Amino acid sequence: MLERTGVPTPEQIREVTPPEEIMKAKPVAIIECFQKIPCDPCHTACPTGAILEFEDINDLPKIDWSKCTGCALCVAKCPGLAVFVVDMTYSDREAIVKLPYEFLPVPSRGEEVECLNREGKVVSKGKVLQVFEPFKDGTKVISVVVPKEFAMEIRHIRVVRKDG
Amino acid sequence: MKETDILVVGGGPAGLCAAIEAARAGARVLIIDDGLRLGGQLIKQTHKFFGSKDEYAGTRGFKIADVLLSELERYGDRVEAITNTTVTGYYTDDGVFGALTGEERYFKVKPKRAIIATGAYEKTIPVPNCDLPGVYGAGAVQTLMNVYGVKPGEKALMVGAGNIGLIISYQLAQAGVQVQAVVEAMPKIGGYLVHASKIRRIGIPIYTSHTIKEIHGKEHVEGATIVQIDERWEPISGTEKYIEADLICLAVGLSPLIELLWQAGCKMRYVPELGGYVPVRNREMRTSHPDFYVAGDAAAIEEASTAMIEGRIAGLCAAASLGYRPPDYEERLEGFWAQLERLRRGPVTEKIRQGLPKAMKEE
What we know:
heterodimer, A: alpha+beta, seven-stranded antiparallel beta sheet, 5 helices, 7 strands, B: alpha/beta, seven-stranded mixed beta sheet, 29% helix
Protein backbone atom coordinates (compact mmCIF):
# COMPACT_ATOMS: atom_id res chain seq x y z
CA MET A 1 0.00 0.00 0.00
CA LEU A 2 0.88 3.66 -0.49
CA GLU A 3 2.35 4.16 3.00
CA ARG A 4 4.84 1.34 2.46
CA THR A 5 5.67 1.78 -1.20
CA GLY A 6 4.99 5.36 -2.18
CA VAL A 7 2.79 4.10 -5.02
CA PRO A 8 -0.97 4.66 -4.80
CA THR A 9 -3.10 1.54 -5.12
CA PRO A 10 -5.41 0.97 -8.13
CA GLU A 11 -8.32 1.43 -5.72
CA GLN A 12 -7.01 4.86 -4.66
CA ILE A 13 -6.56 5.88 -8.29
CA ARG A 14 -10.12 4.80 -9.09
CA GLU A 15 -11.42 7.03 -6.30
CA VAL A 16 -9.86 10.15 -7.84
CA THR A 17 -10.62 9.30 -11.48
CA PRO A 18 -13.56 11.16 -13.05
CA PRO A 19 -16.54 9.18 -14.34
CA GLU A 20 -16.16 7.84 -17.86
CA GLU A 21 -18.59 10.29 -19.48
CA ILE A 22 -16.44 13.19 -18.27
CA MET A 23 -13.19 11.55 -19.35
CA LYS A 24 -14.69 11.03 -22.80
CA ALA A 25 -15.86 14.62 -23.06
CA LYS A 26 -12.89 16.83 -22.18
CA PRO A 27 -9.47 17.15 -20.55
CA VAL A 28 -9.66 17.06 -16.74
CA ALA A 29 -7.39 17.30 -13.73
CA ILE A 30 -6.78 14.18 -11.67
CA ILE A 31 -5.56 14.96 -8.17
CA GLU A 32 -3.50 12.08 -6.79
CA CYS A 33 -3.36 13.43 -3.24
CA PHE A 34 -4.21 10.80 -0.66
CA GLN A 35 -2.85 12.12 2.59
CA LYS A 36 -4.23 14.94 4.68
CA ILE A 37 -1.41 17.45 4.82
CA PRO A 38 -1.80 21.20 5.46
CA CYS A 39 -1.78 22.47 1.88
CA ASP A 40 -4.18 24.31 -0.45
CA PRO A 41 -2.38 25.93 -3.44
CA CYS A 42 -4.29 23.73 -5.93
CA HIS A 43 -7.43 25.58 -4.91
CA THR A 44 -5.90 29.04 -5.05
CA ALA A 45 -4.32 28.28 -8.45
CA CYS A 46 -7.59 27.12 -10.03
CA PRO A 47 -9.01 29.85 -12.28
CA THR A 48 -12.45 28.25 -12.79
CA GLY A 49 -13.36 27.36 -9.22
CA ALA A 50 -13.28 23.67 -10.03
CA ILE A 51 -10.97 22.83 -7.14
CA LEU A 52 -13.15 23.71 -4.20
CA GLU A 53 -12.20 25.91 -1.31
CA PHE A 54 -10.82 24.03 1.70
CA GLU A 55 -12.89 24.08 4.87
CA ASP A 56 -9.86 22.81 6.77
CA ILE A 57 -6.46 23.25 5.15
CA ASN A 58 -5.70 19.63 6.07
CA ASP A 59 -8.60 18.28 3.98
CA LEU A 60 -8.01 16.36 0.78
CA PRO A 61 -8.74 18.47 -2.30
CA LYS A 62 -12.19 18.19 -3.84
CA ILE A 63 -12.83 18.89 -7.50
CA ASP A 64 -15.96 19.69 -9.43
CA TRP A 65 -15.07 18.19 -12.81
CA SER A 66 -17.95 19.99 -14.52
CA LYS A 67 -15.99 23.23 -14.04
CA CYS A 68 -12.53 21.86 -14.86
CA THR A 69 -11.09 22.87 -18.22
CA GLY A 70 -7.85 20.89 -17.96
CA CYS A 71 -5.80 24.11 -18.04
CA ALA A 72 -3.11 22.48 -15.86
CA LEU A 73 -2.35 25.50 -13.66
CA CYS A 74 -2.86 23.17 -10.67
CA VAL A 75 -0.37 20.75 -12.26
CA ALA A 76 2.24 23.49 -12.20
CA LYS A 77 1.31 24.80 -8.74
CA CYS A 78 0.90 21.67 -6.57
CA PRO A 79 3.97 21.55 -4.27
CA GLY A 80 3.64 17.76 -4.16
CA LEU A 81 3.58 17.42 -7.97
CA ALA A 82 0.49 15.28 -7.46
CA VAL A 83 -1.87 16.70 -10.09
CA PHE A 84 -2.09 15.53 -13.70
CA VAL A 85 -4.37 16.37 -16.59
CA VAL A 86 -5.59 13.59 -18.84
CA ASP A 87 -7.25 14.34 -22.18
CA MET A 88 -8.87 11.25 -23.67
CA THR A 89 -10.42 13.26 -26.52
CA TYR A 90 -7.15 13.77 -28.41
CA SER A 91 -7.67 10.99 -30.99
CA ASP A 92 -9.08 7.51 -31.32
CA ARG A 93 -5.97 5.80 -30.05
CA GLU A 94 -4.03 8.48 -28.29
CA ALA A 95 -4.50 10.63 -25.24
CA ILE A 96 -2.64 13.60 -23.83
CA VAL A 97 -1.14 13.54 -20.36
CA LYS A 98 -0.02 16.86 -18.89
CA LEU A 99 2.50 16.27 -16.13
CA PRO A 100 4.83 18.37 -13.97
CA TYR A 101 8.52 18.20 -14.88
CA GLU A 102 11.53 19.58 -13.01
CA PHE A 103 14.49 17.85 -14.68
CA LEU A 104 17.09 18.56 -17.31
CA PRO A 105 17.22 18.32 -20.21
CA VAL A 106 13.85 19.81 -21.01
CA PRO A 107 12.32 17.98 -23.96
CA SER A 108 11.59 19.82 -27.18
CA ARG A 109 8.26 19.93 -28.94
CA GLY A 110 7.89 16.86 -31.08
CA GLU A 111 10.60 14.94 -29.26
CA GLU A 112 10.05 11.27 -28.53
CA VAL A 113 10.42 10.52 -24.82
CA GLU A 114 10.13 7.51 -22.55
CA CYS A 115 6.96 7.44 -20.47
CA LEU A 116 7.11 6.03 -16.96
CA ASN A 117 4.38 4.74 -14.68
CA ARG A 118 3.93 5.41 -10.94
CA GLU A 119 6.59 2.81 -10.16
CA GLY A 120 9.15 4.38 -12.46
CA LYS A 121 8.89 1.67 -15.13
CA VAL A 122 8.93 2.64 -18.78
CA VAL A 123 5.58 1.58 -20.22
CA SER A 124 5.62 3.28 -23.61
CA LYS A 125 7.09 5.96 -25.80
CA GLY A 126 5.34 9.28 -26.12
CA LYS A 127 5.61 12.43 -28.21
CA VAL A 128 5.93 15.83 -26.60
CA LEU A 129 3.20 18.14 -27.82
CA GLN A 130 3.89 21.19 -25.71
CA VAL A 131 6.19 22.46 -22.96
CA PHE A 132 5.05 25.37 -20.83
CA GLU A 133 5.90 26.94 -17.50
CA PRO A 134 2.82 28.79 -16.27
CA PHE A 135 4.34 30.38 -13.17
CA LYS A 136 7.94 30.74 -14.41
CA ASP A 137 9.06 29.03 -11.22
CA GLY A 138 11.02 26.06 -12.50
CA THR A 139 8.09 23.66 -12.75
CA LYS A 140 7.35 22.90 -16.38
CA VAL A 141 4.18 21.24 -17.58
CA ILE A 142 4.83 18.75 -20.35
CA SER A 143 1.96 17.69 -22.62
CA VAL A 144 2.79 14.29 -23.98
CA VAL A 145 0.82 12.22 -26.47
CA VAL A 146 0.61 8.60 -25.33
CA PRO A 147 -1.30 5.44 -26.25
CA LYS A 148 -4.78 5.76 -24.69
CA GLU A 149 -4.49 2.53 -22.71
CA PHE A 150 -1.55 3.97 -20.74
CA ALA A 151 -2.97 7.44 -20.10
CA MET A 152 -3.99 6.58 -16.56
CA GLU A 153 -0.62 4.98 -15.83
CA ILE A 154 1.93 7.39 -17.28
CA ARG A 155 3.00 9.97 -14.71
CA HIS A 156 6.57 10.89 -15.66
CA ILE A 157 8.71 11.23 -18.76
CA ARG A 158 12.39 10.73 -19.39
CA VAL A 159 14.34 12.41 -22.13
CA VAL A 160 16.66 9.98 -23.88
CA ARG A 161 19.27 11.48 -26.16
CA LYS A 162 22.04 9.47 -27.74
CA ASP A 163 24.68 12.15 -27.31
CA GLY A 164 23.80 12.27 -23.61
CA MET B 1 30.66 44.78 24.12
CA LYS B 2 27.65 45.09 21.84
CA GLU B 3 24.36 46.04 23.40
CA THR B 4 20.94 45.54 21.88
CA ASP B 5 17.31 45.12 22.84
CA ILE B 6 16.90 41.67 21.38
CA LEU B 7 19.50 39.17 20.29
CA VAL B 8 18.20 36.61 17.81
CA VAL B 9 20.45 33.58 17.68
CA GLY B 10 20.00 31.95 14.28
CA GLY B 11 18.93 33.59 11.03
CA GLY B 12 16.79 30.80 9.62
CA PRO B 13 13.02 30.93 9.07
CA ALA B 14 12.23 31.25 12.79
CA GLY B 15 14.97 33.78 13.55
CA LEU B 16 14.25 35.99 10.54
CA CYS B 17 10.55 36.12 11.36
CA ALA B 18 11.34 36.84 15.02
CA ALA B 19 13.59 39.73 13.95
CA ILE B 20 10.96 41.10 11.57
CA GLU B 21 8.25 41.16 14.23
CA ALA B 22 10.47 42.59 16.93
CA ALA B 23 11.79 45.33 14.65
CA ARG B 24 8.30 46.07 13.37
CA ALA B 25 7.25 46.67 16.96
CA GLY B 26 10.14 49.10 17.39
CA ALA B 27 12.84 47.08 19.15
CA ARG B 28 16.49 47.12 18.15
CA VAL B 29 17.49 43.66 16.97
CA LEU B 30 20.79 41.91 16.47
CA ILE B 31 20.75 38.66 14.48
CA ILE B 32 23.77 36.41 14.75
CA ASP B 33 24.05 33.46 12.38
CA ASP B 34 26.83 30.96 11.78
CA GLY B 35 26.14 30.71 8.05
CA LEU B 36 27.85 32.82 5.43
CA ARG B 37 24.50 34.32 4.59
CA LEU B 38 21.16 34.57 6.32
CA GLY B 39 18.30 32.19 5.64
CA GLY B 40 19.32 29.06 7.50
CA GLN B 41 18.10 25.89 5.85
CA LEU B 42 15.81 27.88 3.54
CA ILE B 43 18.65 28.86 1.24
CA LYS B 44 19.15 25.27 0.12
CA GLN B 45 15.51 24.25 -0.06
CA THR B 46 14.60 24.10 -3.72
CA HIS B 47 11.24 22.40 -3.19
CA LYS B 48 7.96 24.26 -3.04
CA PHE B 49 6.45 24.71 0.37
CA PHE B 50 3.13 23.33 1.49
CA GLY B 51 0.68 25.27 3.63
CA SER B 52 -1.45 28.21 2.58
CA LYS B 53 -0.68 31.62 1.08
CA ASP B 54 0.08 32.88 4.60
CA GLU B 55 3.01 30.48 4.76
CA TYR B 56 4.18 31.15 1.18
CA ALA B 57 2.76 27.85 -0.09
CA GLY B 58 3.84 26.92 -3.59
CA THR B 59 6.99 29.03 -3.23
CA ARG B 60 10.42 27.41 -3.14
CA GLY B 61 12.28 27.63 0.15
CA PHE B 62 15.19 29.75 -1.10
CA LYS B 63 12.72 32.25 -2.54
CA ILE B 64 11.04 32.48 0.85
CA ALA B 65 14.41 33.42 2.35
CA ASP B 66 14.55 36.31 -0.17
CA VAL B 67 11.02 37.40 0.75
CA LEU B 68 11.85 37.44 4.47
CA LEU B 69 15.12 39.30 3.93
CA SER B 70 13.41 42.01 1.92
CA GLU B 71 10.74 42.30 4.62
CA LEU B 72 13.52 42.71 7.16
CA GLU B 73 15.15 45.45 5.10
CA ARG B 74 12.18 47.70 5.78
CA TYR B 75 13.44 48.06 9.33
CA GLY B 76 17.03 48.51 8.22
CA ASP B 77 18.12 50.99 10.83
CA ARG B 78 16.87 48.91 13.73
CA VAL B 79 18.25 45.56 12.59
CA GLU B 80 21.84 44.45 12.49
CA ALA B 81 22.89 41.03 11.22
CA ILE B 82 26.24 39.39 11.74
CA THR B 83 26.96 36.25 9.73
CA ASN B 84 29.75 33.68 9.85
CA THR B 85 29.49 33.98 13.63
CA THR B 86 28.70 31.39 16.27
CA VAL B 87 27.18 32.32 19.60
CA THR B 88 29.44 30.23 21.78
CA GLY B 89 27.98 30.65 25.22
CA TYR B 90 25.86 32.49 27.74
CA TYR B 91 27.15 33.62 31.10
CA THR B 92 24.48 33.71 33.77
CA ASP B 93 26.40 35.91 36.20
CA ASP B 94 26.31 39.00 33.98
CA GLY B 95 23.82 38.04 31.23
CA VAL B 96 26.43 38.25 28.49
CA PHE B 97 26.72 36.12 25.35
CA GLY B 98 30.04 35.26 23.77
CA ALA B 99 30.28 35.14 19.98
CA LEU B 100 33.02 34.11 17.59
CA THR B 101 33.32 35.36 14.03
CA GLY B 102 35.16 32.88 11.86
CA GLU B 103 37.80 31.42 14.13
CA GLU B 104 39.40 34.68 15.20
CA ARG B 105 37.28 37.56 16.32
CA TYR B 106 35.64 37.04 19.69
CA PHE B 107 33.19 39.55 21.08
CA LYS B 108 30.51 39.88 23.72
CA VAL B 109 26.86 40.78 23.38
CA LYS B 110 24.60 42.00 26.14
CA PRO B 111 20.97 42.00 25.06
CA LYS B 112 17.89 42.69 27.13
CA ARG B 113 16.17 39.64 25.66
CA ALA B 114 17.34 36.65 23.62
CA ILE B 115 15.36 34.63 21.09
CA ILE B 116 16.92 31.24 20.56
CA ALA B 117 16.19 30.14 17.01
CA THR B 118 19.17 27.85 16.59
CA GLY B 119 17.30 25.11 14.77
CA ALA B 120 18.35 21.50 14.99
CA TYR B 121 21.23 19.14 14.47
CA GLU B 122 21.15 15.96 12.45
CA LYS B 123 21.12 12.63 14.17
CA THR B 124 23.29 9.85 12.90
CA ILE B 125 23.32 6.08 13.21
CA PRO B 126 26.29 3.88 13.96
CA VAL B 127 26.99 1.47 11.11
CA PRO B 128 30.25 -0.37 10.46
CA ASN B 129 32.48 1.89 8.32
CA CYS B 130 30.28 4.95 8.78
CA ASP B 131 33.50 6.99 9.12
CA LEU B 132 34.49 6.40 5.48
CA PRO B 133 34.60 9.39 3.15
CA GLY B 134 31.34 9.42 1.22
CA VAL B 135 29.09 9.11 4.26
CA TYR B 136 27.22 12.37 4.70
CA GLY B 137 24.41 13.85 6.68
CA ALA B 138 21.56 14.80 4.38
CA GLY B 139 21.97 18.48 5.23
CA ALA B 140 25.56 18.51 3.99
CA VAL B 141 24.54 16.87 0.73
CA GLN B 142 21.86 19.48 0.23
CA THR B 143 24.31 22.28 1.00
CA LEU B 144 26.89 20.94 -1.44
CA MET B 145 24.36 20.61 -4.24
CA ASN B 146 22.08 23.55 -3.79
CA VAL B 147 24.32 26.21 -2.24
CA TYR B 148 27.70 25.40 -3.80
CA GLY B 149 26.70 23.54 -6.96
CA VAL B 150 28.82 20.51 -6.13
CA LYS B 151 27.65 17.06 -7.19
CA PRO B 152 28.31 14.96 -4.08
CA GLY B 153 28.59 11.56 -5.75
CA GLU B 154 27.50 9.43 -8.68
CA LYS B 155 25.46 6.70 -7.02
CA ALA B 156 23.67 7.35 -3.75
CA LEU B 157 21.96 5.35 -1.05
CA MET B 158 19.55 7.37 1.09
CA VAL B 159 18.94 6.22 4.66
CA GLY B 160 15.61 7.52 5.95
CA ALA B 161 12.27 8.15 4.24
CA GLY B 162 11.16 11.16 6.23
CA ASN B 163 10.56 14.39 4.33
CA ILE B 164 14.26 15.23 4.31
CA GLY B 165 15.29 11.85 2.91
CA LEU B 166 12.58 11.94 0.25
CA ILE B 167 13.14 15.54 -0.79
CA ILE B 168 16.91 15.21 -1.01
CA SER B 169 16.61 11.97 -2.99
CA TYR B 170 14.57 13.91 -5.53
CA GLN B 171 17.11 16.73 -5.58
CA LEU B 172 19.99 14.28 -6.00
CA ALA B 173 18.18 12.87 -9.04
CA GLN B 174 17.71 16.41 -10.36
CA ALA B 175 21.45 16.94 -9.99
CA GLY B 176 22.10 13.85 -12.10
CA VAL B 177 23.01 11.49 -9.26
CA GLN B 178 21.70 7.95 -9.59
CA VAL B 179 19.76 7.30 -6.37
CA GLN B 180 19.93 3.54 -5.94
CA ALA B 181 17.45 3.21 -3.11
CA VAL B 182 15.90 4.78 -0.06
CA VAL B 183 15.87 2.56 3.03
CA GLU B 184 13.58 3.19 5.97
CA ALA B 185 13.57 1.19 9.18
CA MET B 186 9.97 2.01 10.02
CA PRO B 187 7.27 -0.07 8.34
CA LYS B 188 5.77 3.09 6.85
CA ILE B 189 7.16 6.07 4.97
CA GLY B 190 7.51 8.94 7.42
CA GLY B 191 7.52 11.87 5.00
CA TYR B 192 4.68 13.24 2.91
CA LEU B 193 3.42 10.55 0.57
CA VAL B 194 3.38 12.95 -2.38
CA HIS B 195 7.15 13.28 -1.99
CA ALA B 196 7.42 9.47 -1.93
CA SER B 197 5.29 9.13 -5.06
CA LYS B 198 7.47 11.76 -6.78
CA ILE B 199 10.62 9.70 -6.32
CA ARG B 200 8.97 6.37 -7.08
CA ARG B 201 7.79 7.54 -10.49
CA ILE B 202 11.28 8.67 -11.44
CA GLY B 203 12.48 5.15 -10.66
CA ILE B 204 13.88 5.27 -7.12
CA PRO B 205 12.89 2.25 -4.99
CA ILE B 206 11.87 2.72 -1.36
CA TYR B 207 12.53 -0.16 1.01
CA THR B 208 10.50 0.20 4.20
CA SER B 209 11.30 -2.10 7.16
CA HIS B 210 14.90 -2.09 5.97
CA THR B 211 18.07 -0.83 7.56
CA ILE B 212 21.66 -0.35 6.54
CA LYS B 213 23.77 -3.18 7.93
CA GLU B 214 27.25 -2.32 6.79
CA ILE B 215 29.04 0.17 4.60
CA HIS B 216 31.76 -1.18 2.30
CA GLY B 217 34.88 0.38 0.88
CA LYS B 218 38.57 0.89 1.55
CA GLU B 219 39.51 4.51 0.93
CA HIS B 220 36.01 5.65 0.13
CA VAL B 221 32.47 4.31 0.20
CA GLU B 222 31.93 1.71 -2.52
CA GLY B 223 28.62 0.25 -1.45
CA ALA B 224 26.46 -0.92 1.40
CA THR B 225 24.54 -3.94 2.55
CA ILE B 226 20.93 -3.35 3.47
CA VAL B 227 18.74 -5.84 5.27
CA GLN B 228 15.07 -6.25 6.05
CA ILE B 229 14.09 -6.05 9.72
CA ASP B 230 11.17 -7.59 11.59
CA GLU B 231 8.68 -5.96 13.99
CA ARG B 232 11.25 -6.16 16.81
CA TRP B 233 13.82 -4.44 14.58
CA GLU B 234 15.86 -7.64 14.28
CA PRO B 235 17.56 -8.24 10.92
CA ILE B 236 16.00 -11.07 8.94
CA SER B 237 18.86 -13.21 7.71
CA GLY B 238 18.87 -14.04 4.04
CA THR B 239 17.29 -10.69 3.08
CA GLU B 240 20.61 -8.86 2.69
CA LYS B 241 21.06 -6.85 -0.51
CA TYR B 242 24.24 -5.21 -1.76
CA ILE B 243 23.78 -1.70 -3.09
CA GLU B 244 26.56 -0.11 -5.09
CA ALA B 245 27.05 3.50 -4.01
CA ASP B 246 29.79 6.10 -3.54
CA LEU B 247 27.52 8.29 -1.44
CA ILE B 248 25.62 7.27 1.68
CA CYS B 249 23.26 9.96 2.81
CA LEU B 250 21.91 9.81 6.36
CA ALA B 251 18.51 11.41 6.91
CA VAL B 252 17.58 9.76 10.18
CA GLY B 253 16.09 12.63 12.09
CA LEU B 254 16.80 15.88 13.86
CA SER B 255 17.20 17.00 17.47
CA PRO B 256 16.62 20.52 18.84
CA LEU B 257 19.83 22.54 19.24
CA ILE B 258 19.40 23.89 22.74
CA GLU B 259 22.76 24.25 24.50
CA LEU B 260 22.26 27.98 25.09
CA LEU B 261 18.97 27.29 26.82
CA TRP B 262 20.60 24.71 29.07
CA GLN B 263 23.32 27.23 29.90
CA ALA B 264 20.75 29.84 30.80
CA GLY B 265 19.15 27.38 33.20
CA CYS B 266 15.85 27.24 31.32
CA LYS B 267 13.57 24.49 32.50
CA MET B 268 13.79 21.66 29.97
CA ARG B 269 11.65 18.60 29.38
CA TYR B 270 12.27 15.44 27.44
CA VAL B 271 9.45 15.20 24.91
CA PRO B 272 10.22 12.51 22.33
CA GLU B 273 7.31 13.65 20.10
CA LEU B 274 9.07 17.01 19.71
CA GLY B 275 12.51 15.55 19.01
CA GLY B 276 14.14 15.29 22.46
CA TYR B 277 14.84 17.85 25.17
CA VAL B 278 12.93 21.08 24.60
CA PRO B 279 12.46 24.17 26.73
CA VAL B 280 9.24 24.63 28.66
CA ARG B 281 7.52 27.76 27.31
CA ASN B 282 4.26 29.65 27.37
CA ARG B 283 2.03 31.07 24.63
CA GLU B 284 4.47 33.91 24.12
CA MET B 285 7.23 31.37 23.36
CA ARG B 286 8.89 32.64 26.52
CA THR B 287 10.88 30.04 28.45
CA SER B 288 11.12 29.71 32.24
CA HIS B 289 13.96 32.25 32.08
CA PRO B 290 12.17 35.59 31.59
CA ASP B 291 14.80 36.94 29.20
CA PHE B 292 14.82 33.86 26.94
CA TYR B 293 12.39 33.08 24.13
CA VAL B 294 12.51 30.15 21.72
CA ALA B 295 11.17 29.46 18.23
CA GLY B 296 11.41 26.93 15.43
CA ASP B 297 13.17 23.57 15.55
CA ALA B 298 14.91 24.54 18.82
CA ALA B 299 11.42 24.45 20.35
CA ALA B 300 10.21 21.32 18.56
CA ILE B 301 11.18 19.53 15.35
CA GLU B 302 8.49 20.69 12.95
CA GLU B 303 8.15 22.37 9.58
CA ALA B 304 9.64 25.65 8.39
CA SER B 305 6.09 26.98 8.06
CA THR B 306 5.40 26.58 11.79
CA ALA B 307 8.91 27.80 12.62
CA MET B 308 8.17 31.09 10.85
CA ILE B 309 4.97 31.63 12.82
CA GLU B 310 6.60 30.73 16.13
CA GLY B 311 9.37 33.17 15.26
CA ARG B 312 6.81 35.91 14.76
CA ILE B 313 5.21 35.11 18.12
CA ALA B 314 8.57 35.18 19.91
CA GLY B 315 9.60 38.43 18.22
CA LEU B 316 6.29 40.14 18.90
CA CYS B 317 6.21 39.08 22.56
CA ALA B 318 9.88 39.71 23.32
CA ALA B 319 9.50 43.25 21.96
CA ALA B 320 6.28 43.78 23.94
CA SER B 321 8.05 42.68 27.13
CA LEU B 322 10.42 45.62 26.62
CA GLY B 323 7.60 48.08 26.14
CA TYR B 324 7.45 47.88 22.34
CA ARG B 325 3.86 46.75 22.26
CA PRO B 326 2.20 47.43 18.91
CA PRO B 327 -1.46 48.54 19.01
CA ASP B 328 -2.49 45.35 17.22
CA TYR B 329 -0.58 43.14 19.68
CA GLU B 330 -3.53 41.05 20.90
CA GLU B 331 -5.08 40.35 17.51
CA ARG B 332 -1.68 39.66 15.98
CA LEU B 333 -0.80 37.14 18.66
CA GLU B 334 -4.20 35.46 18.38
CA GLY B 335 -3.84 35.41 14.59
CA PHE B 336 -0.49 33.67 14.76
CA TRP B 337 -1.85 31.06 17.14
CA ALA B 338 -4.87 30.48 14.93
CA GLN B 339 -2.50 29.99 11.99
CA LEU B 340 -0.41 27.48 13.98
CA GLU B 341 -3.50 25.60 15.05
CA ARG B 342 -4.69 25.33 11.44
CA LEU B 343 -1.36 23.87 10.35
CA ARG B 344 -1.18 21.47 13.28
CA ARG B 345 -4.73 20.18 13.02
CA GLY B 346 -4.23 17.33 10.54
CA PRO B 347 -3.22 13.68 10.99
CA VAL B 348 0.43 14.24 9.94
CA THR B 349 0.98 16.46 12.98
CA GLU B 350 -0.65 14.15 15.51
CA LYS B 351 2.64 13.57 17.34
CA ILE B 352 3.25 17.30 17.57
CA ARG B 353 -0.20 17.78 19.08
CA GLN B 354 0.57 15.10 21.65
CA GLY B 355 3.96 16.57 22.48
CA LEU B 356 3.24 20.28 22.66
CA PRO B 357 1.11 20.30 25.83
CA LYS B 358 4.02 18.60 27.62
CA ALA B 359 6.27 21.50 26.71
CA MET B 360 3.82 24.26 27.54
CA LYS B 361 4.40 25.90 30.88
CA GLU B 362 1.78 25.30 33.51
CA GLU B 363 0.72 28.81 34.40
